[in-house]
Design goal:
It comes from Myotis lucifugus (Little brown bat). The chain is of the alpha/beta class. Helix 1 packs parallel to helix 10, helix 4 packs across helix 9 and helix 7 packs across helix 9. It is globular and about 80 Å long. The ligand CC(C)=CCC/C(C)=C/CC/C(C)=C/CSC[C@H](N)C(=O)O binds next to helix 4, helix 8, helix 9 and helix 12.
Length: 477
């Protein structure tokens, strides 16, 4: 049995989380509900491009896993096209030498890997596959409309106590327990985690697994920029975009047209120099709740809604067009260097986490140098690079343009996730980032929050936090 649908829903934040939430809310609640989507910056949020000499490059979230089924579905349903992330050879630097270097010959790579690390790369591949296999259960649950009231319940339904345990242990502890050697972890795994999350092996084991999935083959991106998914979702959801910064949310009693006094949420926002507000039946917050990133306060809630203090790590992405100083990484000159991505080990004295050649978002081909042999490189570093540092990395450069991010949570297990239900009809999506931050994670959180809001509105408690879903759905034909 269904209640009358809500009149108005607010979604705060038009990144991939907020726009996909609007899309799923429209699917569940139907065409009559009015959905307002608040955004204080650009649609896309941490999915953004940077334009350099007339070419656009991904400056935020750039790669998508081949098994990220929500992102895949969006691209298909919204009529977008994909490009494959360009390969290129990868090396790992410890600041003095390259501790690992890929060859363009497949067989040489296999021999090198076995020589240096035995069968650990294969075992690691299997470990990640096993985590991914369980993770994929979420798509089955969500396609059957099941929802979860907390991130912990969601993860438990996917991988049981093992998945919850991964939030409580460091990635290092998790992999040491699984029998991987220090050399392999230092030289192969820590550098991937520095590239993807700018952090050491002290992150939680779950985000570590996601990070390794982010180094799988078959990664892809959206032609024209990943942020196009957000603008297309916004359009498809037929939501009303309000350009403004939400300042606070307050619960108040309003008398609706029916004459009934109803508890509603007043969303107060600033647009230009004006302060305005609107009343909503349901509110979804799709931005990290902390002072630096969203600065939203919750007034007069009973019980009060706590202030969240999740610290987000700063990452600086710098785009440099220039000729690499290959001798910063190896003894070879540039014309014999051949690597297009260099990762760094944790103990490296280098001031960057990674550096790699990038292609424009419209190019499906391998990146091409300009006539003088210069490529466009992207570095990730914890701090802004100084001119002196840039001149260490490059023989010469034409430009260096930076984009600074509060990129992802600073992971420090045990990682306890914030609640999804902040109040009766007030939901929070970005708590999922405490398990792992990635585009697909936000899309999963958005689908879950839309289903949760729908079932709670209609009193469908049997669709929330069902135990043993995997077994139940296995027997369902
Ligand atoms: C440099 C970088 C590289 C990354 N690479 C990858 C990658 O390759 N693959 C991957 O899967 N993930 C990647 N990620 C992570 C991914 O980008 C994020 O997990 C994802 O984009 C988060 O989306 P979101 O919608 O949850 O949050 P956001 O994108 O942060 O969206 C929140 C939105 O809310 C708005 N907002 C905030 N406060 C208010 C307010 N008070 N009022 C109104 N609006 C407000 C913000 O302006 C923002 O647009 C990367 C992130 C960064 C920074
Ligand atoms: C959620 C699952 C199962 C998989 C996602 C895997 C994935 C794509 C992880 C990447 C996460 C991330 C935050 C990457 C940041 S750096 C990305 C890229 N290599 C770049 O150079 O910009």
């Amino acid at each position: 049995e269904l209640q009358a649908p809500p009149d108005k829903i607010a979604v705060i934040g038009a990144g991939i989380g907020g726009t996909s939430a609007a899309y799923y809310l429209r699917q569940k609640f139907g065409k009559d509900v009015k959905i307002d989507l608040f955004e204080r910056g650009e649609v896309g949020g941490r999915l953004a491009t940077i334009t350099l000499q007339g070419q656009e490059y991904e400056a935020g979230g750039s790669v998508i896993h081949p098994l990220n089924l929500h992102m895949k579905r969006f691209v298909k349903d919204l009529g977008l096209s994909t490009i494959q992330s360009s390969g290129g050879l990868i090396g790992v630097s410890n600041g003095d030498t390259l501790v690992f270097e890929e060859s363009s010959w497949f067989i040489i790579n296999i021999i090198k890997l076995i020589w240096q690390y035995g069968f650990q790369p294969l075992r690691m591949h299997m470990w990640v596959e096993d985590v991914l296999d369980k993770f994929m259960r979420i798509y089955r649950y969500q396609s059957h409309d099941y929802a979860f009231s907390s991130v912990e319940n969601l993860l438990h339904s996917l991988g049981g106590d093992d998945f919850l345990g991964m939030l409580n242990r460091t990635f290092l502890e998790t992999l040491q327990k699984a029998g991987f050697s220090k050399k392999f972890l230092d030289e192969m795994i820590a550098p991937v985690n520095r590239l993807n999350y700018g952090q050491s092996m002290d992150v939680n084991g779950f985000v570590g697994a996601v990070s390794l999935a982010g180094a799988d083959s078959g990664l892809w991106a959206v032609e024209g920029g990943n942020k196009l998914v957000c603008s297309k979702l916004l359009q498809a959801s037929k939501s009303n975009l309000i350009s403004g910064s939400v300042m606070y949310i307050e619960e108040k009693t309003r008398t609706k047209q029916t004459g009934n006094p109803t508890r509603m949420y007043e969303v107060v926002y600033q647009t230009g120099s004006e302060t305005r507000s609107g009343f909503y039946d349901i509110v979804l917050v799709a931005t990290p709740l902390n002072r630096k990133m969203s600065n939203i306060t919750f007034l007069n809630f009973d019980p009060p809604i706590e202030e969240f203090h999740q610290y987000y790590k700063q990452i600086v992405a710098t785009f440099i067009k220039g000729k690499l100083n290959s001798t910063s990484f190896s003894s070879r000159a540039l014309d014999e260097f051949g690597l297009s991505t260099i990762l760094t080990t944790d103990n490296s004295r280098l001031f960057i986490n990674s550096i790699g050649i990038v292609s424009p978002v419209k190019e499906n081909n391998n990146p091409q140098p300009s006539t003088d042999g210069a490529f466009v490189w992207k570095t990730f570093s914890p701090e802004t690079l100084t001119n002196e540092q840039l001149l260490k990395l490059f023989l010469s450069y034409e430009y260096a343009v930076k984009q600074q991010w509060h990129a992802y949570p600073y992971y420090k297990p045990p990682d306890k996730c914030p609640p999804i239900i902040l109040h009766d009809r007030l939901y929070y999506l970005n708590g999922i980032e405490c398990a792992a931050s990635a585009m697909e994670m936000s899309a999963i959180a958005a689908h879950n929050a839309a289903l949760l809001a729908y079932h709670r509105w209609n009193g469908h408690t049997d669709m929330i936090d069902q135990e043993d879903l995997y077994e139940k759905l296995k027997t369902e034909l």
